[in-house]
Specification:
Layout lengths: L1 H10 L7 H8 L3 H13 L3 E5 L3 E6 L6 H5 L11 E7 L2 H10 L7 E7 L17 E8 L3 E2 L3 H20 L4 E3 L3 E4 L2 E13 L2 E12 L18 H5 L5 H22 L3 H10 L6 E6 L2 E10 L5 E5 L2 E5 L3 E4 L1
Parallel strand pairs: 3-4
Antiparallel strand pairs: 1-2, 4-5, 5-10, 6-10, 7-8, 8-9, 9-10, 11-12, 11-15, 12-13, 13-14
Helix pairs in contact: 2-3, 6-8, 6-9
Length: 322
């Protein structure tokens, strides 16, 4: 009911909505309505309450709740089911647990704060409250195992395009999963999968974005290598609206990818955003260090390096770009 009351307040934002009308609409007492109004106020919504006039929504807080994300969301699947929590260890961990219990394709898990956010290869991800977007999507694509890396690249294209649009500056993709502005990291993407009989049955796509941090809010060890959307654009953003834009763009590209049955149409968009291609790379692979000029990504999403011993493909690695 609280979410429905909020929706009515939004729809009538320029006028007062009487308590009597709300009581009639939801068939509850004035006390029940007042309780929900108080709950909304405690969440940060500024609601003007005037005797004999009713309630009017003045402003909404920058929070990443299901109600805020759903408001105006135009997707068909992604984000149509949302699990939003204030704090947890990792959205990827919770999303994996929920996927095991049958949560549907497109379910979004999002937190205001992570205490154990994860990056690639077990690295920690700085996820303070009230500043960023820490979210994971449950996807059920039923793809061959060899196509698993491509989903990370599709997500990177979607996020990179949205961040570029919002910031008014080009966001570049560092293979395979980082979004940077002028060589400072703004976003990381981590995909984890489950498979049966050589077919992917479940993928968790974790996306962490620095949105409203200022430089001083980053730890000393991150200050020279990390950035946020706010720092780049020079203004703060309503995080729920950023989430909406990402879900909408990702669904569009994901559907194109699924319909085409190949990474080919997304591959060209990835190459346009790449800040890896054309530069020398040191790739720390499971087989050891590989260095060379990044010249392409292949149709499966592998990075192609021109090395002293010829062309080599990198499927998984931590890379440094020079």
């Amino acid at each position: 009911m609280k979410e429905q009351i909020l929706k009515m307040l939004r729809a009538n934002q320029n006028e007062y909505l009487s308590g009597e009308e709300l009581c009639r609409r939801f068939n509850v007492s004035r006390t029940a309505i007042w309780k929900h109004i108080k709950d909304l106020q405690e969440e940060g919504y500024e609601i003007d309450a005037v005797r004999n006039k009713g309630y009017r929504l003045v402003s909404a807080p920058d929070i990443v709740t299901a109600a805020e994300i759903r408001e105006g969301l135009s997707t068909r699947r992604l984000g149509q089911h949302i699990v939003a929590v204030k704090e947890l260890d990792s959205t990827n961990v919770l999303a994996a647990k929920l996927a095991e219990t049958g949560e549907p394709d497109g379910t979004l898990v999002i937190a205001d704060c992570q205490t154990g956010g994860k990056g690639r290869r077990g690295k920690a991800w700085f996820s303070p409250p009230g500043t960023g977007i820490w979210m994971s999507l449950i996807l059920r694509p039923h793809l061959p195992l060899a196509q698993a890396p491509q989903l990370t690249l599709v997500a990177a294209v979607a996020v990179g395009q949205v961040l570029s649009d919002l910031a008014g500056h080009r966001a570049g993709i560092k293979w395979p999963n980082d979004i940077l502005f002028e060589d400072r990291k703004c976003c990381g993407i981590l995909t984890e999968m489950n498979m049966e009989s050589e077919e992917i049955t479940r993928v968790i796509v974790g996306i962490g974005i620095n949105v409203n941090q200022t430089e001083i809010e980053f730890p000393d060890e991150l200050r020279d290598i990390a950035t946020s959307l706010r720092i780049v654009a020079g203004r703060p953003f309503h995080r729920a609206k950023v989430v909406q834009r990402i879900l909408e763009r990702f669904e569009l590209l994901y559907d194109q990818y699924a319909e085409y049955g190949s990474f080919a149409p997304i591959r060209e968009q990835w190459k346009q955003q790449s800040i890896t291609l054309g530069r020398y790379v040191s790739a720390h692979t499971p087989r050891g260090l590989l260095t060379g000029l990044a010249v392409d990504i292949d149709e499966m999403g592998a990075l192609v390096l021109e090395t002293d011993s010829g062309r080599q493909k990198v499927y998984s690695a931590d890379i440094q770009v020079s």
